[in-house]
Amino acid sequence: MNDQAESSSKNLDEPSLQEQIEMLQAQLNEAQKLTALGELTSTITHEFNNVLMTIINYAKIGIRHKDEPTRDKALNKIHTAANRAAKITNSVLGMARNRSDQHEPTDLHRLIDDALVLLDREMTKYRIVIEKQFEDVPEVLANGNQIQQVLLNLMINARQAMPNGGRLLIRTVHDASTGMVDLTVRDTGSGIPRDKLRRIFDRFFTTKKGPDATGKGGTGLGLAMCRDIIESHNGRIRAESTVGKGTAITLKLPIARPAVAPTAAVAPVLGIQARATSQ
């Protein structure tokens, strides 16, 4: 009897299968956050290092050469680099200020511009031409930090899909019929085969062989994190791709409605779609 009672007590103390799944899910979510933080830290550190090297090298030139034209050129280069450092700092500070878990009215265009500041040198190095097609869209109801994580992930993925250079298009459109803002990140890379496209949002699935030369990507967690974040915003994420032509990822985010008398609510759109097009 005592042995049976002890066994029953142990069973009660052990977490159920559902509880174990929830614990593992929480641990995986933390791993995704740490992965995103690590890649962001790497990007910011690399960008700052580039700026510092420019300042140091032109300072040496200014010290070494006494003629006024050379010194003026060196000072102008230092001034330009310092201004870039200020932009990077402002982008990072903007992310640091928005540490709330709340969804608030958010300017998508500012988030996009801040992300591009952090990736400017990387895009230039790999000969990626940035094209922005911004409509006059309303603010969205979002957590700015989380959406910026999504943007950075999508832009880095697009750059990695174009190792020989290409064009990165970022477009925003207000879909008044659904009360959403559509944000599309489109590359001109190699594209994703149909059989792989349907799995790109699955955890631990990746089309890459591992991290690239910058140490980014290859974990299979990036797009899964993007999906989870967009779904938590009552939004939608869709992927379209054509082999040999490129890939487009579209986010649909709900607009931030002004505080007025209650009206008929727009039903949130949930889900993930992946569509491949024939070549």
Please state roughly what percent of the residues sit in beta strands, choosing from under 5%, 5-15%, 15-25%, 25-35%, 35-45% or over 45%.
15-25%
Number of helices: 7
Q: What summary fits the major beta sheet?
A: 6 strands, mixed
The third-level CATH topology of the largest domain is: Heat Shock Protein 90
CATH architecture level-2 label of the largest domain: 2-Layer Sandwich
Question: Which residues form runs of ≥5 with pLDDT under 50?
Answer: none
Number of strands: 8
Outline of the structure:
With 279 residues, the chain is α/β, with parallel strands linked by helices. Helix content is 50%, strand content 19%.
Description:
The structure is a single chain. The protein has a six-stranded mixed sheet, with helices on one face. Strands 1-3 form a two-stranded antiparallel ribbon. The model has no long low-confidence stretch (mean pLDDT 80). 29% of the residues are buried. It is globular and about 75 Å long. The chain has seven helices and eight strands, in the order αααβαββαββααβββ. By secondary structure, the chain is α/β, with parallel strands linked by helices.
